[in-house]
Amino acid sequence: MTETFQAVLISRDEDKKQSVEWATLSEDDLMEGDVTVAVEATTVNYKDGLAITGKAPVVRHFPLVPGIDFAGTVTKSTHADWKEGDKVVLNGWGVGETHHGAYAERARVNGDWLVPLPDGMSATDAMAVGTAGYTAMLCVMALERHGITPERGPVVVTGATGGVGSVAVTLLAGQGHHVIASTGRAAEADYLKRLGAAEIIDREELSGPARPLGKERWAGGVDAVGSHTLANVLSMTSYGGAVAACGLAQGMDLPTSVAPFILRGVSLLGVDSVMAPKALRLEAWQRIARELDHARLASISNVIAFKDVLSAAQDIMDGTVRGRLVVEMP
Asked: Which element (helix H / strand E) includes 52?
């Protein structure tokens, strides 16, 4: 008898109207791949919220199981790098966009997309980090490559109570940076200070139209918001500074001028987590395991049941989620 399992399935009708439902699938329903994984934990990221609510065209193949990252145990493999029982993590590679993703109890993927679960981390730990935290580490690494050290001056993190922002604040503070956290949720100031933020500013300071150049306030930054917010961050970055951009919560546009780039030598560092090469992924995950404070990681994560994924996706779009949402599978 074929084993079945529960999954979230996104479909679209002839009029291109999207629908989301719970479905019963078997491994025969999974897409091509040389490694099958028993999914033990996943997350709800902002991109997952966009996919499930249909507020952005994240899903590009229908029907599709959403969910852009997971951690679990290999159950079958014909890939040279993986064998049954191996603990693995997946982030990106189009999973949950064009390839069946994490919101099912089984996933079949290309083994080249997987990295080993770091020693000392459980599947739940890894998903408390998830794509958001892994992206935050990629941003920190990009700033380091540009020479942004604590001695250069403060760094700003926008969308600081979100998944990327929370982990970025924690990582940067752990390195000794003076972190300025931007948030629209004043009630979360104590939370951000516990993560290591030295200052809290209201996102309204950054959310309106930017001047070509503003007062120099920080040496660098991590931005997950885009649009006017990123434009303001750039205009206030000090000479020779850099900003790592990885998100578009406010918008995909960038209404700025060339002034920060040609008059202050500011650099805009684009950070992509979806197609990042494996060597960069391995470095990011090894550093996460080594550098991310486990107590702080626990403080930014909330564990939910698989059955609550759909409501959590709406919550994250409504802006009522702080930190990371970890989904423990049945």
From this structure: helix 46-53
* Claim to verify: residue 29 and residue 74 sit in the same structural domain: yes
Omega of the bond leading into 63 within 30 degrees of 0 (cis): yes
Whether residue 291 contacts residue 177, with contact meaning beta carbons closer than 8 Å, is answered with: no
Three-state SS letters, 182-237: EECCHHHHHHHHHHCCCEEEECHHHHCCCCCCCCCCEEEEEECCEHHHHHHHHHCE
* Whole-prediction pTM: 0.90
Among the listed residues 246, 255, 202, the one whose alpha carbon sits nearest the alpha carbon of residue 225:
246
Could you report the average pLDDT of every consecutive run of 10 residues in the chain (330 residues)? 89 90 96 97 94 90 95 98 98 95 97 96 94 95 98 97 93 97 92 95 96 97 98 98 95 96 98 94 95 86 95 92 90
* Domain that includes residue 100, residue range: 4-117+300-328
CA-to-CA distance for 128 and 299, rounded, in angstroms? 10
